[in-house]
Design brief:
The complex is a heterodimer of chains A (403) and B (74). Chain A contains one helix and 19 strands. Chain A is mainly β. A 16-stranded antiparallel β-barrel of chain A has the order 1-2-3-4-5-6-7-8-9-12-13-14-16-17-18-19. In chain A, strands 10-11 form a two-stranded antiparallel ribbon. Chain A is globular and about 75 Å long. Chain A starts with a helix and ends with a strand. With 74 residues, chain B is an all-alpha fold. Chain B has two helices and no strands. The longest helix of chain B has 18 residues. Chain B is flat and about 45 Å long. The two termini of chain B are 23 Å apart. Classes of the chains: A mainly beta (403), B mainly alpha (74). Chains A and B meet through strand 1, strand 2, strand 5, strand 6 and strand 7 of A and helix 1 and helix 2 of B.
Chain lengths: 403, 74
Amino acid sequence: MKKICLTLVGIYMMMLHAYSQFQDKDTSFYTAKPLKIDEINLVSSYYSQDGNHSPVTGGIGTEKVMDLSNGLDVTWIGWDDMQRKHTLTADLGFDHHTSASAAFVNKSGASKTGGTRIYPSLNWNVENAQKGTGFGLGLYYSREYNYTSFGLDAQYSKKTKNNGEFTGKITGYFDRVKLIYPSEFVREATVTSASGGDENRYKIPSSPRTTLTASLSFSQVINKRLQGIILLDAVEQTGYLGLPFHRVYFNDGTPNIENLPSQRFKLPVGLRLNYFLGDKIIIRSYYRYYIDSWGLKSNTASLEVPVKITPFLSISPFYRYYDQTAVKYFAGYEMHTAKDQYYTSNYDLSKFHSDFFGANIRIAPPKGVFGMQHLSMLELRYGHYAKNIGMNANVISLNLKFK
Amino acid sequence: MNKQTLKHLALAIMAGIMLASCANVKEYQKSRINDAEMILGNRKVEKNELNFQSYREGASGANGGKTGGGCGCN
């Protein structure tokens, strides 16, 4: 992994060097501006859900989850002596969640239900306004008790002469899933951390999961009021793609551990169109079609309508519709048979549709929110999510932007 | 590739052609296009929404967010 990082940094340095060969004489009087803090964002969210199809208990039982997440990102901007804009963003996220069904990793219901996740990231973008090109690199890390992830990406963008922009991006996530099995599949000597044991005393093995994504997008200003973007991702996942503490009960009542193929190819295509209607109303629309090699097909459509009450205050009601077919390997509690090669009772992979609606309030007065000069923007958002298979959730989020 | 998939692909190609064949808008004409609410990405405040959707739904990607990986999600 270190080799990959060093290679990427090397490529980046070579590109910087290569660009430096084309310095125009008439730009030499520009002086570099060192990186300086441009903005700081704090994003906090509270999420709660309930339902009755937990995969930990084989597709039956509580799905109650609570998650409290906090994120801080800092963006620095600077210019080099060739007038290229450098943007560096450092992000640190911290989540704490409780999941009622996690208690039943141990059949007695004694496993711990809480967990934390920490996920720092770093992004660096260089934009050459004269050439209309951009180049960026990103590094990502995430850790929670049963999952560790390391990711990196590289992207390149090129503006067209007619207010368009192509962007290509390659992303790789190199993850490890800790093999925490339900208690009835674990011998007494190997007590897992999720069932209350000491993680340091009992080394739990893990299995790799790799996700490689090639993304292409094309954005275009269509006229003075309308702009859009087409997004395409091609995603290849390999490795352990299920979760080891998901139970599946066969039709004879015997418990098993979820078993899914070790390869999955995903192909989502999205289109976003934003239209400024009159002077006070904006229509933000989005549609996505998704298909994958596990047989899942899905449609997502959303509409958000920000209404400007004043130039600095807007209220945006939104609605999102989502549907999906089931993966080939899904069946409910005690529906699978011993003949099935792959099996899951995870209802997130079943056939369903969902509705998500709510509202967003955005305040960004020129003299600062509540008269605080550095607090340039406040955004508060609430949404209610409901699946037609008996699961529902509420999420409330707050974004404070400091300049 | 079935009929429905072809229909969706055709729609995407048509949308691409539509996006590519548009009027030239000058910088001074972009006051509405440059409005903060007109961004073609997700709002920062939506971050956790996109996160929970990637756990609770089988589909992901083509929205500028996660495509799988990086979390124990689908």
